[in-house]
Write a structure and sequence with these properties.
Isopropylmalate Dehydrogenase; 2 domains; 12 helices; eight-stranded mixed beta sheet; about 325 residues; two-stranded parallel sheet; single chain; about 15% strand
Length: about 325
């Protein structure tokens, strides 16, 4: 089956002028789909890849055995400087493994981190949570590096002038948390950041901070709970609005407000999750991403490259290291 959302998102991004797009996959299939969308005049190039990594493939095995997979071919294009970034809605583990091995990490980064943008109850604000799954076991220095990378991403991509950074714990008091969070708290208190201390799970959506740092185990649990909550709220709202004639009339009268509510919870508005700390831009989209998510992921990747985010990460990590010596 054709990768319809990816192609449609690429066409929308090219028409919007976000970037020159390179689609990687079976040449004949992609050429045919682009022709069907009258996209041949757009700045979209096709690079052939004969293999695909499935969602069932093990990441390390797929990297070793599928040397001509679309993920690996795309990563080589980034490594060789032919494109600025990689975007994929495929197997997350395979994308992270390929990016780490082929692209390599930035100077001063021990472990790349996967960041996710969450909507906030404060209009016009959002919160970046990292890591949401790239690193299950972390040390305090890794959390400090995540904080620096997340703060820069929030500044350069989300446009927050001086992001407030918090450390996810089971209480806001300094003595709360486990050994990892207490050690990380001490490091972050001395980091060149607008660090506010420990924050709790509720702060992910209330706009108290702009960046929240956690290890990949806790961050991924928080991400999956949040996704489940959004689905549950949407289902409950739909059920309530169709339960009676008066509810249906009320929905018609407030349809605009409900559309705005749905848009604020829509993950596709943020594109995807950047893998921070690797060379080049690497944006990993949700497996069920629609065309709008792909289009916005391309926009984010272009802004990431144009904003020289990686250069700023290397420079600020170097400054943070010098300040401790």
């Amino acid at each position: 089956m054709a990768p319809v959302p990816e192609i449609e998102g690429a066409v929308q991004a090219a028409r919007a002028g976000y970037a020159e797009v390179v689609l990687v996959g079976p040449q004949d299939l992609l050429d045919r789909e682009l022709a069907a969308r009258d996209a041949r005049s757009l700045k979209i190039e096709v690079v052939h890849a004969s293999e695909a990594v499935t969602m069932e493939d093990k990441a390390a095995k797929a990297f070793r055995r599928k040397r001509d997979s679309s993920i690996r071919v795309a990563a080589r294009l980034v490594r060789d400087g032919k494109v600025d970034g990689l975007i994929s809605a495929g197997n997350t583990g395979a994308v992270m493994t390929t990016a780490k091995i082929l692209l390599g990490t930035l100077e001063g980064v021990d472990r790349p981190a996967l960041a996710q943008v969450f909507p906030s109850s404060k209009r016009g604000k959002a919160t970046v949570l990292l890591d949401v799954g790239a690193n299950v076991d972390c040390k305090a220095i890794h959390l400090e590096q995540f904080a620096v990378m997340g703060e820069i991403y929030c500044r350069k991509i989300l446009g927050v002038a001086k992001p407030r950074v918090g450390l996810l714990s089971n209480g806001s008091e300094p003595h709360k948390g486990n050994e990892l969070t207490r050690e990380a708290l001490a490091r972050l208190n001395n980091a060149p950041l607008n660090f506010v201390g420990n924050v709790e799970g509720r702060d992910l959506f209330n706009g108290r901070v702009d960046v929240i740092v956690a290890d990949g185990f806790i961050g991924n649990v928080a991400l999956k709970i949040s996704e489940g909550l959004v689905d549950a709220v949407s289902a409950l709202l739909k059920e309530a609005l169709s339960s009676s004639v008066s509810s249906k009339v009320g929905y018609v009268l407030s349809r605009k407000a409900f559309r705005g509510f749905k848009k604020r919870l829509d993950y596709s508005e943020y594109g995807g999750a950047p893998l921070l700390g690797v060379r080049g831009a690497c944006i990993i989209c949700h497996g069920g991403s629609n065309a709008n998510a792909v289009k916005n992921a391309i926009r984010v990747a272009a802004e990431f490259s144009e904003g020289r985010v990686n250069e700023k990460i290397e420079r600020e990590l170097a400054l943070a290291s010098l300040s401790k010596n």
